[in-house]
Write a structure and sequence with these properties.
The structure holds two protein chains of two kinds.
Chain A lengths: L12 H42 L2 H35 L1 H7 L4 H23 L6 H30 L4 E4 L2 E5 L1 H5 L4 H29 L5 H35 L1 H8 L10 E3 L2 E3 L2 E3 L2 E3 L2 H7 L20 H31 L8 H27 L4 E3 L3 E2 H4 L6 H28 L14
Antiparallel strand pairs in A: 1-2, 3-6, 4-5, 7-8
Helix pairs in contact in A: 1-2, 1-5, 1-7, 1-12, 1-14, 2-3, 2-4, 2-8, 2-14, 4-5, 5-7, 7-8, 7-12, 8-9, 8-11, 9-11, 11-12
Chain B lengths: L2 H31 L8 H11 L3 H18 L1 H10 L1 H22 L4 H30 L19 H28 L3 H32 L1 H8 L3 H19 L3 H23 L2 E3 L3 E2 H4 L3 H30 L4 H8 L5
Antiparallel strand pairs in B: 1-2
Classes of the chains: A mainly alpha, B mainly alpha.
Bound molecules: CIS-heme D hydroxychlorin gamma-spirolactone and protoporphyrin IX containing FE (2 copies).
């Protein structure tokens, strides 16, 4: 067994890049689908509940069709999540060998959430004709709860990577672990709340976009109106809250992970009255071509123009994340956040001025289609901010990404295969969802409306 | 029993559930592959789809559960297996993606070309995934995954006689379990012809599996002496239980007692897994990593066990309900709705 294939001493830089790309790629893929796993059950159950309460056929039809799409998305979410749990070990054995047990608790809890979710998804999707309408509605509730719970649990694990707590090391070996302290680390509250809200935004804007396309094509019937308004309202209500939570996340970084905030804002030197930068490129230790708002960052981070902001110069160069990626990812997220806020306000204004009618302008509907794409882009940008902003650490301050990666050679081959498989998977998922969206409405109508 | 032993037993229970439940789902995919042309195989495929549809996702979660318990309770062993077994685990993960997605897509698609393509992907990955997982088991059992990160041969750890045996056995067992379970499903659906078809398959795979297992003894003797001695020594009673249950299933199948066959077939397969565990006890990884040495810190073990116990209180009734709901015929109201294709 001593061929050249075994016992590679350490990963080459190219292999490290391949592993990071593969992890980021498969996570970035999973997260979009997972958002629907968190938000779609709630929105579907909402429609079903209204159908039962009012006996309204349109709501019932929507609930049926959304449930079908949910079935497809769940399957894809489950399998794309499974590959992640493999990758945690296959790509990052150095992380799991030492810290697997520290983050094991949230993942164990997540396992139970998955069970509940998968069981009740099976029941919900396949028992329209086996249970009474009320009982069927109730089987949707555990799916909603478990979806939010699994997002919560997995993000606590990521929060721990940002704020590692709950363990004692002695010469690199763990001597003591407090799993609950690790799970409820300081980064847990802002990160989990921000993520769960993001999931509802992605789902709401994403579902609404489908009907916005229909409305643009002139299908102005009640089915398309309700199909648009219900998910859009959910997402639009969440958006302002999300911006507040994002601000909380940034304030959290200012005190707990200042290096990341410095990368986000391209701040090199520690100082007071630090301005806020919009746009710009970080070159030779300064942010160029940016729009400056005097003292903006100090105010935003601490509500005080004289507040101290730590700069990148406080840590050695090999402990600084790549600034431009983080800075731009953050800008994209924030711009999208405010854009979506404006979109929601536009609808609100029209609703009030036009007496319960949505805006007539085609521009509004085009913007709604765009919002369906922009929301997941914001999520990706947010995660790039978080994950790249943590570099070079995989466990902040404790373990470097380069020391956690597997020494197995030729990781780029694995990356290439994974990318190809995901490309096919993406194409097939989009195709199937489009088929479901385009199927004639009669195909899903029940023979008679269900009454309570 | 120590906390570490308790946790590894829970993990092994999870693995048993995965093999018995998801294994059969994979087996269903194998039979889908062998069901014949589009028209000829339609009835069989419909039965398979109907049986797997509501349950496969829940069955699949057992694997995640096992993986997570492994890295929580035995992080070093997990890192060793995952890094050395980089190739088969990546392939198995891709197979899992292809299978789950293709199955869901096929259900949601109407055009024949696409249904065929998804069907083919579903069926092929149903064979390949258990095969690769089986090679991993074979590599661990024959001591080719030493402790430490990527310290085993990343090719030879899973391309060797015991691994190939493990892979073949995994596929055969999956097909066998599926055929046995489907006999009863077909009977409940009122189709004697389908029940007969799956009965023939169950009998054939029972024989194939038996022969494989018998050849396996010789392979293990030559290739995995430690496991061989464990199986013929301390593990012998469990192996005998497996063999007896296998024989009983054969007889019950001949007599067409399908429900009873389900039980004995499951016992036969489960006993094989537990025979391996008993044979290898107290080692997690050969040559010398014991359960105690591989285990996480005591607090982690304690919390994990408590959480698992509490979780089981939620999980078990839900699971029972899931299986019970789809084992009983639709309600009268359901029948009515089901006659309209848009019923769900
Ligand atoms: C629809 C999605 C969405 C929207 C509109 C926003 N975010 Fe966000 N943001 C996320 C989705 C997201 C995310 C993908 O969910 C992240 C990644 C990790 C996390 O916890 O949330 C994230 C991370 C994240 C972080 C890094 C947290 C950390 O690393 O600990 C900060 C500082 C912000 N966000 C701040 C904001 C601000 C100030 C916003 C105001 C417009 C904003 N986000 C809008
Ligand atoms: C689903 C949303 C997530 C996305 C889109 C995401 C994105 C990324 C990206 C882009 C990278 C590569 C960063 C780099 O190397 O420069 C990365 C790395 C990584 N992420 Fe995340 N991440 C997500 C959530 C999580 C969670 C919840 C965990 C763990 C519990 C996690 C664990 C990791 C690990 C282990 C790495 C590899 C090491 C590293 O590069 O730091 N990620 N992720
Ligand atoms: C922020 C990041 C993440 C969120 C919000 C999230 C959320 C979810 C949700 C809601 C599901 C249920 C299936 C679905 O809805 O489609 C799911 C599935 C899954 N996720 Fe993620 N996930 C994240 C990242 C991860 C990571 C990092 C891992 C593993 C290391 C992971 C592992 C899994 C697994 C194994 C499944 C399949 C469970 C099943 O079979 O039902 N997820 N995820």
């Amino acid at each position: 067994m001593s061929s050249s294939w075994c016992l590679a001493a350490a990963a080459s830089p190219a292999d490290l890049v391949a592993a990071r790309t593969q992890m980021g790629f498969s996570l970035g893929w999973h997260i979009v689908i997972a958002c629907f796993g968190v938000g779609m059950p709630a929105i579907t159950v909402l429609a079903e509940w209204r159908a039962i309460r009012t006996g309204d056929g349109v709501h019932e039809l929507l609930a049926h069709r959304w449930a079908k799409a949910m079935g497809v998305l769940f399957a894809v979410g489950a399998v794309s999540g499974t590959i992640l749990s493999f990758e945690m070990g296959v790509l990052w054995p150095g992380l799991m060998e030492t810290y697997g047990q520290v983050i094991g608790l949230p993942f164990t809890l997540e396992g139970f959430a998955f069970f509940i979710e998968a069981i009740f998804v099976g029941i919900y999707l396949y028992s329209w004709d086996r249970l009474s309408p009320r009982a069927h509605l109730l089987t949707g509730l555990p799916v909603c709860v478990a979806g939010v719970a699994s997002a919560f649990f997995v993000v606590t694990a990521n929060a721990w990577m940002n704020q590692p707590r709950g363990f004692d090391l002695d010469n690199g070996t763990l001597i003591q672990v407090s799993p609950w302290a690790a799970m409820f680390n300081p980064a847990t509250p802002p990160q989990t709340v921000h993520m769960v809200l993001a999931a509802f935004m992605v789902t709401g804007f994403g579902m609404a976009a489908v009907y916005a396309v229909g409305l643009l094509r002139g299908r102005r019937d009640r089915y398309h109106r309700v199909g648009f308004l219900l998910p859009f309202t959910v997402a639009a209500v969440v958006t302002p809250v999300q911006i507040g939570v994002g601000d909380w996340a940034a304030k959290f970084l200012a005190t707990n992970q200042p290096v990341k905030l410095a990368a986000i804002e391209g701040v090199r030197q520690t100082g007071t009255h630090v301005p806020l930068h919009l746009g710009g490129v970080y070159q030779d230790g300064e942010l160029r071509y940016a729009l400056e708002i005097p003292s903006g960052l100090s105010i935003l981070a601490h509500w005080d123009p004289a507040a101290l902001i730590h700069g990148l110069a406080e840590v050695p160069p090999d402990q600084r994340p790549p600034v431009n990626v983080v800075h731009w990812a953050f800008q994209v997220m924030v711009v999208i956040g405010f854009g979506l806020l404006l979109l929601g306000l536009w609808l609100l204004l029209a609703w009030w001025r036009r007496h319960r009618e949505p805006p007539r302008s085609r521009l509004f509907w085009y913007a709604c289609v765009l919002a369906g794409i922009a929301a997941p882009v914001a999520v990706e940008a947010g995660w790039i901010t978080t994950e790249v902003g943590r570099q070079p650490w995989i466990v902040w301050g404790h373990l470097r990404t380069a020391d956690a990666v597997t020494p197995v050679p030729n990781l780029s081959v694995g990356l290439a295969v994974v990318v190809v498989v995901y490309a096919v998977l993406t194409a097939a998922t989009v195709y199937v969802l489009r088929r479901l969206a385009r199927a004639p409405q009669e195909a899903d109508a029940r023979p008679e409306p269900v009454r309570p | 029993m120590t906390a570490a032993e308790l946790l590894i037993s829970v993990m092994w229970l999870g693995l048993t559930a995965y093999v018995l439940l998801a294994g059969a789902d994979f087996g269903g995919g194998c039979w889908d592959l062998l069901a014949g042309g589009t028209r000829r195989g339609a009835a069989q495929r419909a039965l398979i789809e109907e049986s797997i549809g509501p349950v496969w996702e829940a069955n699949h979660v057992w694997l995640i559960f096992v993986i997570v318990l492994c890295w929580t309770g035995f992080p070093g062993a997990f890192a060793a297996v995952a890094s050395t077994m980089y190739i088969p685990l990546t392939l198995a993960a891709l197979g899992i993606i292809a299978r789950g997605a293709a199955f869901a897509f096929r259900k949601a698609t109407t055009e024949l070309v696409f249904r065929r393509a998804y069907g083919a992907a579903f069926a092929l990955s149903s064979v390949l995934t258990p095969f690769f997982l089986g090679t991993v088991a074979g590599g661990i059992a024959s001591g080719r995954v030493p402790p430490g990160i990527a310290s085993g041969g990343i090719v030879r750890s899973w391309l060797n006689p015991t691994s190939l045996l493990g892979g073949a056995l995994a596929v055969a067992l999956a097909a066998y379990l599926a055929a046995v379970y489907l006999c009863q499903d077909a009977r409940r659906a009122g189709s004697t012809a389908l029940a007969e078809a799956f009965r023939r398959r169950a009998l054939a795979t029972a024989v194939v599996t038996g022969v494989l297992a018998a050849c396996g003894i010789a392979i293990l003797h030559a290739d995995a002496p430690v496991l061989f001695h464990g199986l013929t020594g301390r593990g012998l009673p469990v192996v005998v239980v497996s063999a007896l249950a296998g024989l009983a299933s054969l007889v019950l199948l001949l007599l067409r007692h399908y429900l009873a066959t389900r039980v004995t077939a499951a016992i036969a397969v489960a006993a094989l897994l537990w025979g391996w565990a008993v044979a290898q006890y107290p080692l997690v990884l050969l040559p010398d990593l014991t359960i105690e040495a591989a285990a996480a810190t005591p607090e982690v073990l304690r919390v994990t066990l408590v959480v698992t116990a509490v979780g089981a209180v939620l999980l078990v009734p839900s699971l029972v309900w899931l299986f019970a709901l789809f084992q009983r015929p639709r309600s009268a109201a359901g029948e009515r709705a089901a006659q309209h294709p848009g019923g769900r």
